[in-house]
Amino acid sequence: MNEMTREVDLANANKVKLVDCDIHPAMKSRDEMTKFMPLRWREHVRDFGIRTASPLYGAMPYPRITPGNGMRRDAWPPAGGPPASDVAFLQEQLLDGLGIDYGILQALGPGGATFNQGLGAAISSAMNDWQVEKWLEADKRLRGSICVSQEDPDAAVAEIEARAQDKRFVQIAITPRMLEPAGRKRYWPIYEVAEHYNLPISMHSAAYGTRANTGTGWTSFYLEEHFAFSNASQTAITSMVFEGVFERFRNLKLVVVEGGFAWLPPLGWRMDREWERMREEVPHVVRAPSEQIRDHVWLTTQPMEEPEVNRDLYDILNWMGDDKLMFATDYPHWDFDHPEYAFKVPLDPALKHAILAGNACKLYGLE
Amino acid sequence: MDAETKARRYVVCRADEIQPGASKRVEVAGRDIAIFNVNGEYSAIGDRCPHEGASLCRGAIVGLAEADEPGEARMTRHGEFVRCPWHGWEFDLKTGKSYCDPRRTRVKKFELSVEDGAKIVEGPYKIDVFDVRQEGSYLVIEI
Amino acid sequence: MTSAVASASRPRAGTLPIAGLGAIDCDVHPRSPRRQDLAPYVTDYWREIFTTREIDHLEMSGYPETLRPNRPAPEAGNADAASLAKGLLDPLKLDAAILNVASGVHAIFDPYLAQVICQATNRWLAAEWLDRDPRLRASLVVPFQHPEAAVAEIEAYAKDHRFVQIMAIVMSDNPLGQRRFWPIYEAAAKHGFALNIHAGNTYRHAPTQSGFNSYLVEDFVHQTQGFANQVGSLVAEGVLGKFPEMKVVLSESGVTWMPSLMWRMSKDWRGVRIEVPWVKEMPSLLMRQQVRMTLQPFDGPADPAQAARAIAHLGGDEMLLFSSDYPHDHRIDVAYWPANLPEELAAKAARENALATYPRLEV
Fold first, then answer.
1. Which of A65, A235, A280 sits opposite C210 (nearest CB)?
2. Nearest by CB to C277, which of B65, B87, B102?
3. Least confidently predicted of A334-348, B21-35, C43-57, C309-323
4. Does residue B25 fall inside a structural domain?
5. CB–CB of B55 and A74 under 8 A?
6. So what's the pLDDT on residue C125?
7. Which of A224, C91, C169, C320 is the most exposed place for a label (fewest CB within 10 A)?
8. DSSP C214
9. Domain ranges of chain C
10. Among all residues of chain C, which has the CA nearest to that of A219?
11. How many other CB atoms are there within 10 angstroms of residue A96's CB atom?
């Protein structure tokens, strides 16, 4: 090894190599979160619960395939508690174990889905306090997503304002299963403040919502429900494009988490085609939809797409461009992706680095 | 394996280290091997799931869920499969074969359309099976 | 990202004429019947109901025929069999064309009203269209709102092979794989009818998990979600497995989204199989074997080489069925193979695949 190589190696040694854009931290008990709430809401939760549109209180309407509501079987902390509820074990198994430089938390707070809006706002705030105290304080590699109750835009804006100065929060977290499609005007105050603080809006797949999980009714099985997550992802993108959100908020960024991604190029082609046929219906849409997607939308890689012919993945990556995908493990869920083995085809090193770290560093300002 | 290479026997652990229903990963000659005790019988397979590298010794030992008709499911072949702790792939402990391997599925169809005796094509999703024996208080693997 | 749009407002014209391919057009729209068309085929009671209750023009809000993009260009002709021949079958030298009535009949709540309009529509199709042009074929309109009546209608037309498939609308009350619909598939499969799932929305549910979208353009984008969910249902509920000879035709579904469904469902099935152990084969295999898609309007990139890649992801070319979607206005000349579809597909998609899909289709 010569002098030049050693220098390059030193430079690379300081470079961020792996960013995990979807980690689900958990609680040993709900008290971990409710302790941050005023007494009035703690008592409310005790007596009237946290009720959402899930038909089963406290259980998954589509039961998962592994215990813990769909967790990796080997992610249960030896010291007790559900997967991802033990900081030390998460550090050991995930952050240290995989060599993760930065991990983005998706706490999946129920505030945005809670029927009682006052409670929802209190939950979102408590979830953010919880992220700070239990996780962001504990490990410098972790970054948070600001939980907000999107159906109450005033409360959501207030929560964002309250957290924006804490740079460990790198984005806002909203459920994509909303009362109205994501582009509708009632959510614009949230987008306005997000753009103002340069905080991306992340939308992580949701397990329940007020509407059927398909446009043709409720599916019977989890096998159907699981890929139906992408319905919400596609709807959010479609709505934000055709309502003109990205025309109004030219710096707004959307991150679609855990929706898959192979559907994105076909969606872009279809949106372009429909826009061509019907653009007079939406005169406020000035840029082609696929162009808006390129400029405003990022996606996480999990669950990794597995074409029957492995090499077909190259086409998807080619169509998406090098800078849109960000790696995620989805730890500790059963469909977890391992950064070394998730890709079934060799990738150009520059592209691989972009997906594993570079794109996220750029989007979230991590380096 | 080279026919000339002599198979070696390795003592990997005490038999009572793996109680019925439990499993253990051992390293033998550079390989990670998962050993399962299913109702007193030991099986040993390669530990790494070919999908994304999960440790199969952390997986559940299960039977085979089957159904001829929608809604008429039954569980048979209890204890004959391990389900990967991550994505749930099912591996036959005796043969190492992935139950859902697409090659295997295509082979099944192939067998229906040609004469008996068609050669089974080994699919890519197969793990190694190792011969594990209890000798006294110890488990011995031959590689 | 590769854009579908090559130019400002009009896709490039194709250069391969359809005439000469012996093509079978798998998605053509007669005008939807009005009260006076159906009146001869119903009883006095229903004639009174139609009149007094003003049941006449039936059109889905979720798939409007008088609005863009479906609204026919002024020069198009689908008023009757003769104008359809002049506007489509003769210039394209079609060997056959399959008629799809995508009217509001599919959205009716009253199961008996739905039943009678389906019955009358089928009789009107036979008398005014199929009887007048030997090249015409049709989807049998059946009331999914009333499965027993749907079965009866299938049995009534079992011998009329000009009806090659039964028709459902992609977004309606329930996922089509559910057990309540199985008697319909049993009857269809018994008599060799394919199952046609056609674009549209009866608005029993909002098109999205987040409610109703503001714009009609979004409705048309969201159709692919519906098609994916329906195929997923037919796989997961075991319908494809139970009726392996029955083909499922997706009309106006687009094509390029299908591989992502194949891959995703197959990936999940490996681990989720215990939930649905009657699904014994890889979902992508089941889809390739039994699901078909009409070609237009095509949802691929503008560059035919990239479109070829997207189609190659299907893992086989037997899934594609030529269609014009005439006279819905796509601003391209339907007399030519679409410019962004690889011409190598034309021979098989124009004819061979349809013959393999429809056991009842005789040309």
1. A235
2. B65
3. B21-35
4. yes
5. yes
6. 98
7. C91
8. S
9. 24-357
10. C175
11. 11
Structure tokens at C290: 């039994």
Q: Which of B33, B17, B140 is nearest to B96 (CA)?
A: B33
Q: Do the beta carbons of residue A361 and residue A353 sit within 8 Å?
A: no
Instruction: Count up the domains in chain B and report the number.
Output: 1
Name the residue range of residue B59's domain: 9-142
Q: What percent of chain C has pLDDT over 90?
A: 92
pLDDT at B7: 76
d(CA C238, nearest CA chain A) in Å:
11
Is B118 domain-assigned?
A: yes
Please check the confidence at residue B106 and state whether its pLDDT lies above 80. Answer: no
Query: Which of B95, B85, B29 lies closest to B55 in space, CA to CA?
Result: B85
Residue type, C2: T
HEC states along A113-130? CCCCHHHHHHHHHHHHHH
Instruction: Sort A58 into a burial class: Cβ within 10 Å, 0-12 / 13-18 / 19+.
Output: exposed
Torsion sign over Cα C113, C116, C118, C124: negative
Question: Has residue C3 got a pLDDT over 70?
Answer: no
User: What beta strand segments (E) does C54-183 contain?
Assistant: 96-99, 136-141, 163-171
CATH number of A22-364: 3.20.20.140
Residues 6+ apart with CB under 8 A from B139: B11, B12, B13, B14, B15, B18, B35, B42, B132, B133
Summarised one tens digit per residue, pLDDT across range A32-78 is 999 999 999 999 999 999 999 999 999 999 999 999 999 999 999 99
Mapping DSSP onto H, E and C, the string for B19-45 reads CCCCEEEEEECCEEEEEEEECCEEEEE
Mutate to test the interface with A, among B58, B82, B87, B125 (most CBs of A within 10 A): B87
Give the closest residue to A330 by CA, choosing from A304, A363, A352, A356: A304
Between C250 and B125, the higher pLDDT residue: C250
Q: Does B60 touch chain A (CB under 8 A)?
A: yes
Chains B & C: contacts with CB separation below 8 Å: 50
The residue assigned the tokens 């019955």 is C119
Give the minimum alpha-carbon distance from C245 to chain B in angstroms, rounded to a whole number.
16
Q: State residue B125's pLDDT score.
A: 65
Residues of B in contact with C277 (CB under 8 A): 65-67, 73
Q: What is the mean pLDDT of chain A?
A: 95
Q: How would residue C76 be classed by pLDDT, with cut points 50, 70 and 90?
A: confident
ipTM metric = 0.96
Query: Which tens digits make up the pLDDT trace of A209-222?
Result: 999 999 999 999 99
C-alpha distance from residue A57 to each of A31, A51, A84 (Å): 18, 7, 22
pLDDT per residue over C258-285, tens digit each? 999 999 999 999 999 999 999 999 999 9
| Contact check, Cβ <8 Å, A341/B52 | yes
Total CB pairs under 8 A between chain A and C: 277
C134 to chain A nearest CA, in Å?
A: 34
Which residues 94-113 in chain B show a CB within 8 A of chain C? 98-100, 102, 105-106
Tell me the CATH number of domain C24-357, given options 3.20.20.140, 2.170.190.11, 3.40.190.150, 3.40.50.1950. Answer: 3.20.20.140
On the question of a cis peptide bond just before residue C327, with omega within 30 degrees of 0, the verdict is yes
Is residue A203 over pLDDT 90? yes
pLDDT at B120: 37
Domain locations in chain A? Answer: 22-364
Which residues in chain C have their CB less than 8 angstroms from residue A281's CB? 68, 215-217
Q: Mind telling me how many Å the CA of B115 is from chain C's nearest CA?
A: 22
Query: Bigger pLDDT: A8 or A115?
Result: A115
Q: Residues C241, C279: contact at Cβ < 8 Å?
A: yes
Nearest to A192 by CA among A160, A234, A224: A160
pTM of the model as a whole: 0.94
Q: Look at residue C150 and give its three-state secondary structure.
A: helix
Query: Does residue B2 lie within any of the structural domains?
Result: no
